[in-house]
Amino acid sequence: MEKVNKIPGALMDWIIKTLNSGVNPEAIVDAMIRKGYDPKLSYTTLFRIVGNKPINTPGVQAPYEYEQPEIAKKGSILHTSDREIKVLSKVEKPFILHLDNFLCYEECDQLIELSRNRLKPSTVIDPKTGEEKAATGRTSKGMYFYLRENEFIKKIENRIAELTEFPIENGEGLQVLNYGIGEEYKSHFDYFPPSKVDPAKGGQRVGTFLIYLNDVPAGGETVFPKAGVSIVPKKGSAVYFQYGNSKGEVDRMSLHSSIPVSEGEKWVATKWIRQGNIYRH
Ligand code: PD2
Ligand code: ZN
Questions:
Q1: 57-85 per-position pLDDT tens digit
Q2: What domains sit in the chain, N to C, each tagged with a CATH number?
Q3: What is the separation of C-alpha 137 from the centre of its chain, rounded to a whole number of angstroms?
Q4: CB within 6 Å of ligand 1 — which residues?
Q5: pTM score of the predicted model
Q6: Residue with CA closest to ligand 1 atom 7
Q7: Residues 51, 28: Cα–Cα separation, whole Å
Q8: What band does 129 get if pLDDT is binned at 50, 70 and 90?
C-alpha cells in the first residue's frame, strides 16, 4: 500500500471530531495506519493533539498518574535469589529501567536454541477487537513458552517476578523474537486498547520485561521516541518499562519500537505483565 505522509485539514477535523465523540486515541491511530498513513506521522499527529493530557469527553482517561514501581525502590544493585543485577540507567516518565547481566551468556544461548525450531511470523493485537492478527508493522518471527514450561523457563520467570514483584501468574508466556536484516516492530503500545481489557484474564498489561539475547552489530535498538531514549541491544541485559498504574490507567509516553536490524540478527525475549493473575479475576 502507498504511504501517505501529510495530514490533510479534513482529516485533522475528523480526528478532533472522533476524539470528541469518545473514541480512544490508540484506535484512531490504528485506523489511520490501516488507511495508509505513515505510523510515525499518525502517532506524532495524535500526540500533538492529546499528548498525555485529559480529553474532555466521557470515557477517555485523565492524565496518567505515575506511581513508583516496586523495582525502582531497591537501589542500583538488585538481588534475586540467584543473581546480582546492576541498574545501568533509569528514566522516570515514562518509567524505563535498563539492567545489566540479567542472564548469563549460556542462558541467552540456551533460550535461543530452545525457541529456534518453534518460531512463526509474529502477530499484533488489533486495537479494535483486542484479538491477535498478522501485522505489517511487525516483521519479526516469534514463539511463546508456556508459563513454567520447564525448569529453565521457571528460573527466568522467577527472576523477573523477584525483581518486579509481580507474581509469575501475572505474566504472559515468555516470548522469544528473532529479527533478520530489515525486520522491525513499528511504533506501538504494549497495553490493550482500554475498551478491550479482559478482567477475567488479569486485566490490563502494566509492564514489559525485555531481555536481549545477543549483541546486534548494527540497528535493532529499542526506541522510546517520547522519552528520547534508545536502548542498544547488549547480550544478557534487559529493559523493564512500566506503563500501567493501580487505577488501570495507561501511559501514552511508553510508545516504543524496535528499529530495523541493519547488520546481523536480533534475538530478544519479552514478558508482558498484567495487573492480575492471567487465569483468574
Ligand atoms: O524487540 C524489541 O526491541 C521490542 C520493541 C518493542 C519488543 C517489543 N516492543 C515487544 O515485545 O513488545
Ligand atoms: Zn512492545
A1: 444 557 899 999 999 999 999 999 999 99
A2: 1-63 (no CATH), 70-274 (2.60.120.620)
A3: 14
A4: 177, 185, 190, 208, 210, 222, 256-258, 268, 270
A5: 0.81
A6: 258
A7: 14
A8: low
